[in-house]
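Archive maintenance. Older records in this collection stored only the sequence; we are now back-filling the structure field for every entry so that each record is complete. The fields below show one back-filled record exactly as it appears after the update. Entries are processed alphabetically, and DNA helicase RecQ is next in the queue.

ARCHIVE ENTRY
Title: DNA helicase RecQ
Organism field: Tenacibaculum pelagium
Length field: 701
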Amino acid sequence: MQITEKDLLEKLKINFGYDSFRLEQKSIIENILAKKDTLVIMPTGGGKSICFQLPSLFFEGITLVISPLIALMKDQVDSLKANGIPSTYYNSSQSSEEQQQVFDAIANKSIKLLYVAPESLPLLQNVLNQNYISCVAIDEAHCISSWGHDFRPSYKQLAFLKKTLPETPIVALTATADKATQEDILEQLAILNATRFVSSFNRENIALEVRPANDRVKQIIKFINERSGDSGIIYCLSRKATEQLASKLKQNGIDAKAYHAGLNFEERAKTQEDFIKDDTQIICATIAFGMGIDKSNVRWVIHYNMPKNIEGYYQEIGRAGRDGLPSQALLFHSYADVIQLRQFIANTGNREVQEAKLDRMKQFSEATVCRRKILLSYFGELIEENCGNCDVCKNPPKFFEGTVIAQKALSAIYRLQQKEAMGTVIDVIRGAKNAAVYDKNYQTLKTYGVGSDTSWQHWQHYIIQLINQGYCQIAFHLNNVLQLTDFSKKVLFEGEKVQLTTPVEVKKELKTILKEKNSKKSTSDTLFERLRKLRYRIAQEEDIAAYLVFSDATLKALENERPQTDNEFLAISGVGQRKLEVYGGEFMEEIKTFINEKKQGRKDTTLETFQLYKEGFTIDEIADKRNLKAQTIFSHLSKLYIEGKDVSLDEFIEADTLKLIANAKKVLKNEIALKPYFEFLGEKVPYEQIRVGLTILQKKR
Ligand code: ADP
Ligand code: ZN
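Back-filled structure field:
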C-alpha cells in the first residue's frame, strides 16, 4: 500500500488534531514508514512523539516504545487514549492479571503502541518477534551512552534488539545534541546506517532574560503576580533554598510547593502529580525536578540561582512552552552564586572542564549581545540575525564613557592593597560607615567616599563589567579579593578610555504597576480563563492532566476563533476526531454562554437559571430555553444550592443513590474527583448524579 502525503495529513488531523507537520516531522515519518532505522535529534518540545506515534497507525503490528521513566509512560498513554489511539504500558508493578491483558492485547493486535521500561524487556521475550512488532522507538536514547549526561545501565541491553528484530525499523530519539553521543547511540544499537535528522535547537517562543539578583524574592513575587494562573518552575541551588522560597511565596498568597531529593518518594510523587494536574501552580525545585515531566503548559522557568553550565540551563528552560506559545525564561545573576559554584567545582574530579563551562555560563549571563546567539553557538548552531526575543535585543545596553568610574574603582582596589573582595571595595568607594570599614581604618584612605553619589547596585554592575573587560580580576583562590591586572595601569596612568553600560532598570513606575494590577483582575473573566476552568474540571473527572484535555495553545485558538459548530471546532489546531466527540459539546457550550453573557450585558447566567427554576420549569426545559446543556443547568443549580438559595436538589436524586454516594465518600476518604466515584460505584451511577449527590453531602456537612 502506497501511503501518500494526504494519508499522513489526514491521520495527523484526526488523531492528533494538527493541520501541518513541524519542520522535519514529515521526512522522519516517511523514513520510518519505509522501514529504515532512524535517529532523531530534536530539542525538548520539538515534537518527537508524533514521529513514531503517527507511523504506528499505519503498521500492522505494534510499535514498542522503550522509555526510561514509568511516570512518563502513564502520561503518554493517557494522551494517546485521549486522542483515541489504543495503547498501553507494561511494567513490573502491574498485577499478573494486568500483565496478561497486555499480552492478550499484543496477540489480538488491539493496541497500536506499547510502552515499556528497558528493565522489563526480558519479560516480554515471548512476544519480541516480528510477527507482533512492527517498529521499535527508543525514547531518551542518549541514556544508552556513557558519553551522555544521563547514562542508564539498563539501556545497555538494548543492543540485542537489532539482532532479534533484524527487519524491524528502530527509531532512536533524544534531545541531546553532541556528536560523540550521537555516534555512540548508533553504534550501541547496531544501527550504523540509520538516517539522521538533526533539528535546530532554537526555541524561539522562549523569551530569554537575565537580571541582577538584587531583591530576588520581591522580583519573583511581582513576576508571578503579573502572570496569575500560569504554571512555572523556579530552580534553586539547594534544598533549603527551595523550601525557604516556597514558604515566602506562600506567605504572599502564592500557590507554591518545594521539591527536592530530600523529600520521601510519596511526597515527591504527590508534588509532581499536583503540578502536572494544575493543582499546584508553582514548584520551587532543585534540578532533580523536571526529568519526568511532559507538561506542555509550563509558561515560565526562573533560575533563582545561576546554573553550573549552559547544558543544564538550556535543558531547564526547555521545560517551558512545549506547546509553542510565548513563554519566559528568567535567570538571576549574582556574583555570590558564581563564587559558590566555583567552590563546589573545586572539590570535583574534572575541575578544569567544569570551570570552563561555568565561565561560558557567566559570559552568557553578562552578555551585551543577543543571548540566543550565544546559547545556540554553544551547541554549534550559528544564527545570523539577532533573535529579537531576549532582553539584550529588546533593550540594547547603552554604552557611555565610564573612564572616571573605572579610575575610581581601580584606585580603590589599589589603595586597599588588592586585599579586599568586591563588597568591601564598594563600601569604601561609597564611604560606608560600617565595621568592615572602621575595623581597618579604611575611612582614612584617599578614595574613601569618592563614589557616594552612585548606588551600591550600580557600583557592582560597573565593577563586574571591569572584570569582564579585563581591567581587574577576582582571585578565587584568595577569598575572592579583587586584584589589578596588566590592563589596569592603562586606565590609571595611560589615559585609556573605558566604555560601560548602565544597569537596566527593572523597577517600573508605580502607575504601570497599578495598571497591571487592574488588568490582572479583569483576566479572570476572559474566555480563556473560563475554558481553562472547564478544562480543569474535566481533567479532574477523568483523573488526567489538564493539558492532556487540550493544550494552552488549543485553548487560545478556541478563545480567538470561538467555534460554535462541530466543523468549526474540528478546524481548531489540537482538536482531533475523538476530542471533538468527547469534549466538543461542553467547550462550545461554554463559548456560547460566554458570548451570550457579553451580549446581555453580563446578566448573571446562574441567576437566570434560578429565575426559570422558580417559575417551575424542569431542568430539560430550562436547558432548552437557554440553549445550554442539562449538565450546565445542573451545575448552576448546585452552585445556587451551595449559596443557600431555595433550590431542592434532593428531588434530582433517589435517597438510595445518595446513600451509595455517601458510603463511597467515606471509603474514598472525601475524594473530590468524580471518576473514582464513578468507578467505585461500578460505573452505574451517572456523573451528573454523583455531582448532585456530592453537592448535597457537602452542604449537609
Ligand atoms: P518532545 O517529545 O520532542 O519533547 P512532544 O512530542 O511532547 O515533544 O511535543 C511537544 C508539543 O508539541 C506537544 O504538545 C505536541 O502535541 C505538540 N506538537 C507536536 N507536533 C505538532 C504539530 N505538527 N503541530 C502542532 N503541535 C505539535
Ligand atoms: Zn536576542
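Update note: Residues 5-198 form a domain with the Rossmann fold fold (CATH 3.40.50.300). The pocket of adenosine-5'-diphosphate (ligand 1) is lined by residues 18, 21-22, 25, 42, 44-50, 294, 296, 322-323, 551 (CB under 6 Å).
Entry marked complete.
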